[in-house]
Write a structure and sequence with these properties.
The chain is of the alpha/beta class and 282 residues long. It has eleven helices and ten strands.
Amino acid sequence: MERLERNTGLVLEGGGMRGVFTSGVLDALMKHEYYFPYVVAVSAGACNGLSYMSRQPRRARYSNIDMLRKYGYISLKNLLLEGSIFDPNILYERFPSEIVPFDYEAYARNPAPYEMVTTNCLTGQAEYLSEKHDPRRITAIAKASSSLPYAAHITPVDGIPMLDGGIVDSIPVLRATSQGHPFNVVVMTRNKGYRSNERDINVPSFIYADYPRLREALSRRVEVYNAQLELVERMERWGDVLVIRPQRKMEVGRTCSDPVKLERLYEEGFQEGEKFCRDYRL
């Protein structure tokens, strides 16, 4: 078993429902009581990471699979009626307070810093936000971090309009290194070698009309994401990161609601997490 530096950070990519892979990895880490001294996460990774930081195994899995099956919280109906393709009442009100209550006390006791990435709509830049004690602010940051552009409302945090952190920093490994963690474990939700073949387009001025810098960021989104994928693979070759990623061909999309596919991806994440715990220790 190889020993990692005790100062190793953990970086969690987003990816919508592909995040069930991450929840499987994190459940395996919790099974082996494998906890990092610093965690930074974005979008779906931020939501899954909260259950890891509060040390609540299988809570994120329940949210991503069982609760989706029961409540069907992904739908175009939600988008038309609520302004979000993901039902915000189920995910950010009922889930943390009554369905599977979030352990705020355990989360507050966890000494490791936990940062969630959002995009500041005014500046078009990433914000790295942390909160350990205020339940409303914790929820607001997590919601903002995963508020998909075009498919969710802008979410205010501290009075500042925010959207999905993945717009500008989908894989915040440079943030981890800047915070004093030169080596990091990165949990990805794409296969090795993946690059987006979508094309960036200039966002028309009538969309997000009050936020020109947000439009600029959205107009470079694919280019920035592909550059980050290349950076992570380069750092992996240099030995600066260790990547846990799906090995099977990805069959889950950002808004997938097929429980069979989601369960397979969760199990793959759990198995990859188990393998990591067998091979490495802090």
